[in-house]
# Entry
Amino acid sequence: MARSRRFFYFLVIISLIVALFFSILLGLIIFIGDVAYFFYLGRSAKKSGYGSFANVPDQPQEPAAQEETIIERESVKIPCKYCKTLIDPVTDKTCPNCGAPIDLT
# Structure
């Protein structure tokens, strides 16, 4: 009985050591991959000219000023004398609802 208990403890300790070893190994592999990717980004940024800190200005550049033209159009709507639907006399010549001609008098 004591021998089987010692063997069980031995297996538990060995499994913990193996799990710790593989977790450290996996962390090391991930770390090496991150470092390699970091250096790859630095090298590709130097080739393309982007990403280097030497070309970054101290002050942020403001975008070029663009002129903005706002055109407002006022539209006066009048009610149709038959169905009381609001009609725009500039664009409509007849009532869109009942088809009556617009009477501006």
